[in-house]
Amino acid sequence: DTEVTQTPKHLVMGMTNKKSLKCEQHMGHRAMYWYKQKAKKPPELMFVYSYEKLSINESVPSRFSPECPNSSLLNLHLHALQPEDSALYLCASSRADGEAQYFGPGTRLTVT
Amino acid sequence: RKEVEQDPGPFNVPEGATVAFNCTYSNSASQSFFWYRQDCRKEPKLLMSVYSSGNEDGRFTAQLNRASQYISLLIRDSKLSDSATYLCVVGDSSYKLIFGSGTRLLVRP
């Protein structure tokens, strides 16, 4: 089973709202990732969690706040976003460093 | 210079054709190599890992040339369902994957 699930599928939020994106995997993977993808562009890495600890933050603005409550779950808390933050947000997981990453279906976010 | 470079295409080929995609990467210390496919408005899906000895999965063959820092993907007997964007992906270290911009393939009847 190589399934990564994400909720919600779609999200529309205003610039003053607070919302959270959720990601779950039950493959026993020890690394989890958040990516942002704009139309016709490749995914851009935002955060990496390794063994439930934040190991990489790609200089993401503080209005995005990741959280890893346990080895299966990854959240992305959103606050005071801008319209240019509208994108597909993808979660991924991998068994170990350098191994293939498996992506969830993504959350399509629109900021109004 | 981009870290991972691909021809953006689109490659427009008839069903049954053989098509090849190429990719170059700049970091000679890269450790892992993959091809992903991405359908419109969907997530990237792993197509295959790429090994130095080359590997094949059905109609798909991937090759890696570390000396030239070059990766290829060959698709034989193209199907309509192969239409997608193909992403060349290179793992540098510390859990980071570097994505190419993708090559778009259109297979026509």
Beta-strand proportion of chain A: over 45%
Query: What is the subunit organization of this protein?
Result: heterodimer
Number of helices of chain A: 0
End-to-end separation of chain B in angstroms reads 37 Å
Helices and strands of chain A, in order, run as EEEEEEEEEEE
How many helices of chain B?
0
Q: Biggest sheet of chain A, open or closed, and with what strands and sense? A: 7 strands, mixed
- The percentage of residues in β strands of chain B lies in over 45%
**Cα Rg of chain A:** 13 Å
Summary, kept brief:
By secondary structure, chain A is mainly beta. Chain A is built from no helices and 11 strands.
Describe the structure.
The complex is a heterodimer of chains A (112) and B (109). In chain A, 0% of the residues lie in helices and 57% in strands. Chain A is mostly beta strands and 112 residues long. In chain A, a hairpin with a 2-residue loop joins strand 7 (64-70) and strand 8. Chain A is globular and about 35 Å long. The mean pLDDT of chain A is 94. Chain B has strands at residues 4-6, 11-14, 19-25, 32-38, 44-49, 55-57, 60-65, 70-75, 84-91, 97-99, 103-108. Chain B has 109 residues and is mostly beta strands. In chain B, a hairpin with a 5-residue loop joins strand 4 (32-38) and strand 5 (44-49). Chains A and B meet through strand 5, strand 9 and strand 10 of A and strand 5 of B.
